[in-house]
Design brief:
This is Solute-binding protein family 5 domain-containing protein. Helix content is 35%, strand content 21%. The protein has 18 helices and 24 strands. β17 and β18 form a beta hairpin. The protein folds into four domains: 1-53; 110-348 and 610-646, 3-Layer(aba) Sandwich (D-Maltodextrin-Binding Protein, domain 2); 356-431 and 479-607, Dipeptide-binding Protein, domain 3 (Roll); 433-477, no CATH class.
């Protein structure tokens, strides 16, 4: 019974469980159907609203109800996403701006440079002998060719050129867009006029000797032709002379050429043009101002104003630099670098230059110098290394001849040397005995000065000029030499060192200083010197015809020693006529050997050109220069001011 009851209870419980499961399933089905019906109705409502809406994108008024449709977590996610989106956009925009923003040079600013000396001829026909004149002339005028930062010739006014097979004809096409500073077009006639003026002996241009044997012809309005009587390997090097405007100069007679106002207020076609100048009470120019030429055919310079202040010596210029009155000096002697108060404020550009400094003998003005033994003795007693190390503070390199050591034609076997004992021996063998002048001799000479006997009076005058000491005498004549040097501090220090070397041989030496502005007219042109300490720019080509050929002697030539040697003349003529390098080497080797034997000059050193500028001047690129004015050849690259510009590559 009990077992039956228990079975019945178990069956009832199973039925209950089954009914319960069915009930809950029915409820779920009903709920699902109710949800599905609601969702379906909601979808129909949304489709109706969407079809009636004018815009399918929510507007700002609609967006404000977004909170009603999103829960807090969803709102937080949207806000965080917007924040990171804005932050990323700002960051990416900044990086894009930073990547494409360039600091660019812009036009403007002024550069003030100090020059030692004073301008006189800002005229390419006469500026050769003065660095001051050449510096300004190089900025104001244009030439066929100029030099780039590496010292190589590049086109300037020349658009193109052709050279004939026999190297005798040079055809040059002139660029059509060159203008004079007054607005007139630069024409072939201006070139013809300039060249013919240089060649005309009445104008006394020092460039004349370089173009003997060359003629010019006009081909058309944009082309000229140079015709050489003989081929010349380095003729293009000569075509760096600048052109002057015919319309302004042709009415001025040759005698008045050097007096014309255009020499100080020039009209050229270069990157800068004359603006103004100021003179002091004595008539010397104190400052000179140029302004960028907006019509320049080449790359226009970015520095708007260039000004020059002029000084008597380098010490004055350095004082002005230290006082911030100027921002650079054309040349800074090595031994004066220590005078800079704030050296870190400046860039000192060490430029290579083919220049030699030498002592030139004028045998006509001092009969003693005609003796080769005296000239050799004077050469042997000079310790060049001592001058370079102690006087020039290693700011130069030693040389021993008219062709520099880095030139392909340099004769490595052509060496002179220092030997004081040999120098003394040569003087003794030549009959120059040492005689002492005492204090008593000086007293007696002072008495003899009043003598009626002219011979006695002259002898007394000579003794007084010698002073107390031991001096060399021969045939009752004392060996006296006068050295002339440009009155720059560096030149005078070198001249004083030479004076000491020679006086240690018991030779009386008088030192004479000449102002840079006077050296050409008063000393060189008239050959008014016995011994001249002077520098020459010899160029990249070994051709030294202009300096040592006998035809270049005299007032208008560059043969300062008035040296004449028929064999040398022939060697120089042959060397410049051939383009064969091996032949040229052989000719110049023999030439150097003869110069070494004849000693028309004592070759001392080749200085390095130290150009100092304020660090505010950016992008100076020159490395090699031929003449000091070449430092301005890339002036269009210099800049002071900068600006920001977006550049999309």
């Amino acid at each position: 019974m009990d077992s039956l009851n228990s079975k019945i209870r178990r069956s009832i419980n199973k039925i209950k469980n089954i009914l319960s499961i069915l009930f809950f399933r029915l409820i779920k089905i009903k709920k699902f159907n109710d949800f599905d019906n609601g969702y379906h109705q909601n979808g129909l409502d949304r489709k109706l609203v969407y079809s009636l809406s004018k815009s399918k994108i929510p507007n700002l008024k609609q967006i404000k109800y977004i909170k009603k449709f999103l829960n807090p977590r969803e709102l937080w996610l949207i806000r965080a996403s917007l924040f990171f989106l804005i932050l990323s956009s700002v960051f990416l925009g900044f990086r894009l701006y930073q990547k494409h923003l360039k600091i660019m040079p812009i036009a403007g600013g002024e550069y003030i440079e100090g020059l030692v000396g004073y301008p006189q001829y800002i005229n390419p026909l006469y500026s050769y002998f003065s660095d001051v004149d050449s510096d300004i002339s190089n900025l104001v005028f244009s030439s066929f060719f100029k030099r780039d930062k590496d010292g190589h010739l590049v086109n300037d006014l020349a658009e193109s050129y052709e050279i004939s097979e026999d190297n005798k004809i040079y055809i040059i096409k002139i660029r059509p867009d060159a203008k004079w500073h007054n607005g007139s077009a630069l024409a072939v006639n201006d070139i013809m006029f300039t060249f013919n003026t240089i060649k005309d002996i009445k104008y006394n241009s020092p460039l004349r000797s370089s173009f003997i044997g060359a003629e010019i012809e006009k081909v058309d309005n944009s082309t000229i032709k140079f015709i050489l009587t003989e081929p010349y390997a380095a003729f293009l090097e000569l075509l760096t002379f600048s052109i002057i405007p015919e319309e302004l100069w042709y009415k001025i007679p040759p005698k008045s050429f050097g007096l014309a106002e255009l020499n100080l207020k020039p009209v050229g076609s270069g990157p800068y043009k004359f603006k103004s100048l100021t003179k002091d009470k004595t008539g010397l120019i104190k400052d000179y101002h140029l302004i960028a030429n907006e019509d320049y055919y080449g790359i226009k310079p970015k520095i708007t104003n260039l000004s020059f202040y002029f000084f008597n010596n380098f010490e004055e210029a350095i004082n002005a630099l230290n006082a911030n009155n100027i921002e650079g000096i054309s040349y800074l002697p090595k031994y004066l670098e220590s005078n800079l108060v704030l050296p870190m404020s400046f860039n000192i550009h060490k430029l290579n230059q083919p220049q030699l400094n030498a002592i030139f003998f004028n045998q006509k003005n001092n009969k003693f110098l005609a003796d080769i033994k005296i000239r050799r003795a004077l050469s042997l007693t000079i310790n060049k290394n001592e001058i370079i190390n102690n006087v020039l503070k290693e700011g130069a390199g030693l040389i021993d001849g008219p062709i520099l050591p880095n030139n392909f034609a340099y004769n490595k076997n052509n060496k002179d040397y220092f030997n004081r004992d040999e120098a003394i021996k040569l003087l003794d063998e030549s009959g120059w005995k040492v005689k002492e002048i005492t204090a008593e001799d000086i007293k007696q000479a002072e008495i003899d000065m009043a003598s009626a006997d002219e011979k006695v009076a002259n002898r007394a005058k000579q003794i007084l000029s010698l002073g107390i000491g031991q001096w060399r005498v021969k045939d009752d004549a004392f060996l006296v030499i006068r050295i002339t040097a440009v009155d720059s501090e560096e030149n005078i220090k070198v001249a004083e060192a030479i004076k000491n070397y020679w006086e240690n041989l018991n030779i009386k030496v008088n030192l004479e200083q000449a102002a840079a502005i006077q050296i050409q007219a008063d000393i060189i042109k008239s050959r008014n010197f016995e011994v001249l300490l002077y520098s020459q720019i010899v160029g990249d080509d070994p051709d030294t015809y202009a300096y040592w050929h006998s035809s270049q002697a005299g007032a208008n030539g560059l043969n300062l020693s008035d040296y004449a040697n028929n064999e040398v003349d022939k060697l120089l003529e042959d060397a410049r006529l051939t383009a064969d390098i091996s032949k040229r080497k052989e000719y110049y080797k023999k030439f150097q050997e003869i110069i070494s034997e004849d000693i028309p000059a004592i070759f001392l050193y080749s200085p390095r050109y130290n150009y100092i500028q304020s660090k505010k001047i950016k992008n100076f690129n020159m490395e090699n220069i031929l003449v000091p004015s070449d430092r301005f050849n890339d002036v269009f690259s210099w800049y002071i001011k900068t600006g920001k510009k977006l550049v999309w590559d």
